[in-house]
Amino acid sequence: MRLQPGGRLLGVLLLLVAGFTGIGTDQSIPAEKARVKVTFLYHFAQFSSWPEEVLGDAATPIRLCILGKDPFGSALEQLQGKTVHNRPLEIRHLPAGASARGCHLVFMGPMPKQVLQTLLKQLQNQPVLTVGEGEDFLKQGGMVRLVEEKNRIQFEINITAARRAGLQLSARLLRLARIYEEAG
User: Mind giving me the DSSP string for 60-96?
Assistant: First the structure.
């Protein structure tokens, strides 16, 4: 599947990378950050391509799975009714120890390090785009890491892990990311 995202999507992603400001009280800042992170997840799906055999027929949804603790709260509601590559976007919530096979994109929420390592090992070489926030997430084999620096959400990509899994990431997405180089 060849991805041809519109300029409008890239513009939104550029604005997100440029930064955001919380409006209102301190209580609204976490909700705003959650909305920004959810928007990133949506755009990661739009700027990624999976092997055709993984996608199934045209009615098969793109599955965004939240594995472990859900840090997004009601922010995920903004994805209701959205599509990715002309397919419905389906959101699933999975407990920390569950298998993420059958998911296309997985956000790995906070969980014990050993559980995370086991899950990433299970998904290694599988066409599942893994996203997390932990400091060692990319080193452990994760593909995309969301990073907060100076009130900005940015992202890093382990392109080697993505390629190993048979995923293609848009050059436009890669230009906006910090690229993580695996050792060895």
Answer: PPEEEEEESS---GGGGGGGTT-EETTEEEEEEEE-T
Please provide the size of the chain in residues: 184
Q: Which amino acid is at 57?
A: D
- Helix (H), strand (E) at residue 54: helix 52-55
Summarize pLDDT for 155-167 with one digit per residue, the tens: 999 999 999 999 9
Q: What is the pTM of this model?
A: 0.84
Residue 40 has pLDDT above 90, yes or no: yes
Name 149's Cβ contacts closer than 8 Å, sequence gap at least 6.
none
Tokens standing for residue 137 = 């997430």
94 vs 1, residue with greater confidence: 94
Q: Taking the alpha carbons of 108, 54, 176, 139 in that order, is the dihedral positive or negative? A: positive
Q: Which pLDDT belongs to residue 65?
A: 96
Residue 35, CB half-sphere, CA atoms under 13 Å: how many? 12
**Cα-based torsion angle of the residue sequence 79, 81, 85, 89 in order, rounded to the nearest 10 degrees:** 60
